[in-house]
């Protein structure tokens, strides 16, 4: 069955942020992509620029009687953030009969004036030629005021921004905005506007509770099809842990049937009381489904804002760092000495997580902060609902401690673990702006990243390197896959001109940890020859004196301002303690294709 993919998001979202749906006839799985929505105006017709610009529109033992009771249900925590208008509300306030906004009064409602149109100029890095940027392009989206002279929008609306402007409803002036924080994993960005005139005669929005199924929802924004504000209505269809296409992460999401179109991204969704219950950010497109839009709930928004307030920057959502397997099979539970229908099996532990010091393969996690974990990897959620175990982890902040109840070899115990942000061997986004690069005698080295894979296309990357990027884990913090992306032809590198997209493993016999380490090894080398060892035992050797003499002319011939990115000019500090394990073949990599693709296995 064909699935129609809209053109609102980048290829990396297609590859990594797919959501698996099952059709009602035959239960055959369909892989479709969730699309982010903001409208684009392209200022270049070149194919490479267009590919990039189609981008979007994270041991103390106890006796068994101390195990948590079965009835604990998880309630979303209405965290407080007074400065940004996030209000703490009790259950009585949730159930109260507030004054509802009638459709006839919607046009005159004051809260519509808090929704603004965003105009962004983007200049994305050129990952194939990392010393330069691509041609700029523009897009429009939506945003809304939240108090303390701040606005919220989607991170993909202001990705790689060079200029951001906003315009109020009914105003003909545009005001320059500044991006204060950008949360890629949760697809939220925080903006500020310094001009006093912009804030005159407007009131920030009030955040409401997490809605219930079939609650009415109104989406407001500035989508394609006109310049004035647009309002669409629908109901809440589903609330569950959802794949976030832009950040390649899984967080709580609200599915609605109200229309969400390119340009709606970053706009608020309201309940009948005129309270904001979330941020519109993506839509699902296929021939088998329609009117499936997604809203970032206020619980995720609150987490983002509190993180920013507490740390002065956004640090991201934490992860547990384990690969878990469901325990639905009774024989499997009996073999693991799990006597009740509960728990998930620890299959793998990330080497860079704190879990590596606490958990072992074969442990069964039966509780998280005294909330029982079911054999399907779910926990109780509100009344008569269950939700993915990952939801509990996403309620924490980086550096927080969680208490796990585990069964190890038939014995129950409790243990504490520190939750931190996940370390990606191959990053989904480049946070520092320009990618790192190092040019040695025309050999261009750069870390492998998902944007680079997207730009180069999978065919030119090669199956072995692509498999390593998809399924390998970082063995230590700071590890990178460094590749030779291309060779700038010169007589000093004769015979190597056709090399490209190959992983460099060693330099003069020393295993390479990351690109900064490679630059340090080259700078401190006093040998006559520079020897680069690549995958499959391929070797490139250069004479050190010839390299020094040719470097400046190569840079001049190709119009390159510097032989390395600015971050590599800083002194190299090796923060990695002890000897690191040797390079793993793909067959020995911590995560396999089967483990990623199976319904029974998922990362916590």
UniProtKB/TrEMBL annotation:
Q: Which GO terms describe its biological process?
A: proteolysis
Q: Which regions are flagged for Basic and acidic residues bias?
A: 51-69
Q: According to its UniProt record, what is one Pfam family this protein matches? A: Trypsin_2
Q: Which residues are in the Protease Do-like PDZ domain?
A: 426-567
Keyword Protease in the entry? The reply is: yes
An annotated Gene Ontology molecular function: serine-type endopeptidase activity
The annotated region (Disordered) lies at 40-82, 569-590
Q: Which keywords fit this entry according to its UniProt record? A: Hydrolase, Protease, Serine protease
Q: Which family does it belong to?
A: Belongs to the peptidase S1C family.
Supply the name of the protein: Protease Do-like 2, chloroplastic isoform X1
Gene from which the chain derives: LOC106772007
